[in-house]
Amino acid sequence: MIKGYKIVEIPSVIDERGSVSFVELGQLVNFAFKRAYWLYNIKTERGFHCHKKLKQFIFCIHGSVDCVLDDAKNRIIIKLDSPNKGLIIDQPLWREMKNFNNSACVVVLASDTYDEEDYIRSYQEFKKWTDCNL
Ligand code: T46
Predict the structure, then answer these.
(1) How many C-alpha atoms does 32 have within 13 Å on its Cβ side?
(2) pLDDT for 62-97, tens place per residue?
(3) Is 33 in contact with 57 (CB distance < 8 Å)?
(4) Number of domains the chain is built from
(5) Are 38 and 105 spatial neighbours (Cβ–Cβ below 8 Å)?
(6) Measured in angstroms, how far is the CA atom of residue 32 from the centroid of ligand 1?
(7) Which domain holds residue 94?
(8) What is the CATH number of the domain that holds 101?
(9) How many CA within 13 A on the CB side of residue 109?
């Protein structure tokens, strides 16, 4: 069983005008966001890295994507296919983003600013790092 991720239903209000979904610090997510970014016009698979410290809240506001999470022993695939379905990753897991569908747009709220030093971009290195650090 993989630890360090959570699938959450994002609160939404749906009425005759349409839908609004929202996330507030302290409710669904217990880490502060310092950065937001979004993936779109996606041509190929993405990710293929681990973040050592970064925590993320990920959701697909349009289309769908398969998120592969791997703790160096086990692997799970989570489909994000609704704007009110969120994925929280708060441990250093390897992730791959695959099967982007229907002009997918993926939004990420991240606990920190961009830092290339926080990435492990080789799976072999990730396995070694996991053995030494977790
Ligand atoms: C993640 C998955 C799900 C920046 O300069 N600033 C930024 O805030 C970001 C997100 C990226 N970049 C630069 C760094 C690279 O030169 O944009 C380029 C592509 O970034 P990256 O290789 O991280 O792209 P993905 O799609 O593999 O990963 C992204 C997120 O960066 C990452 O945190 O978990 O989406």
Answers:
(1) 3
(2) 999 999 999 999 999 999 999 999 999 999 999 999
(3) yes
(4) 1
(5) yes
(6) 19
(7) 5-133
(8) 2.60.120.10
(9) 16
